[in-house]
């Protein structure tokens, strides 16, 4: 899977999550060129949730990935098992690359969800957006191993 994968996310990772994210980015290096771009997170204090989503949504749309396949991470998105995720990702890779959009603590604005070509759910559970980025990187690594015919359980 010689792939180009981009992750566009709201806000920087908290320092507690950085080592795990770096770990998976390092593991992914032989399989894919993965870039992570971040847009500024909007603080909730003094603002309504709708206003925060709108501001973060504008930033995400302004930085929109150019990949042929852009998927928004959303709890109501398509639920795939690991093998299914790998097969789905392969379609994007074959078309020239894939990108994932990860919202902030409130999720993604409706206009961002509409713009995305797909919606993917990492779990039916609500995950903190910081943890979702790490889980996404881990699943990308597993998918890369699957697509190369390598074991992925260990």
Give an overview of the whole structure.
This protein is of the alpha/beta class and 154 residues long. It has a single domain, classed as Alpha/beta knot (3-Layer(aba) Sandwich), CATH 3.40.1280. Helices cover 41% and strands 23% of the residues. It contains five helices and five strands. The protein has helices at 18-28, 49-62, 82-94, 110-115, 129-147, and strands at residues 3-10, 32-39, 69-79, 98-102, 118-121. The protein has a five-stranded parallel beta sheet with strand order 2-1-4-3-5. The longest helix has 19 residues, at 129-147. The chain starts with a strand and ends in a 7-residue tail after the last helix. The model has no long low-confidence stretch (mean pLDDT 94).
What descriptive keywords fit this protein?
154 residues, alpha/beta, Alpha/beta knot, five-stranded parallel β-sheet, 23% strand
Topology:
Blueprint: E1 3-10, H1 18-28, E2 32-39, H2 49-62, E3 69-79, H3 82-94, E4 98-102, H4 110-115, E5 118-121, H5 129-147
Parallel strand pairs: 1-2, 1-4, 3-4, 3-5
Strand order of the largest sheet: 2-1-4-3-5
Identify the overall geometry. Answer: globular
CATH-scheme architecture: 3-Layer(aba) Sandwich
Number of extended strands = 5
For the record, what CATH class applies? Alpha Beta
| Overall pLDDT confidence | 94
Runs in which pLDDT lies below 50 for 5 or more consecutive residues are none
Distance between the termini: 19 Å
Q: How many separate domains make up the residues?
A: 1
Give Rg in angstroms: 15 Å
**Percent of residues in beta strands:** 15-25%
- Kindly identify the CATH topology: Alpha/beta knot
The succession of helices and strands, N to C, reads: EHEHEHEHEH
Helical stretch tally:
5
Helical percent range? Answer: 40-55%
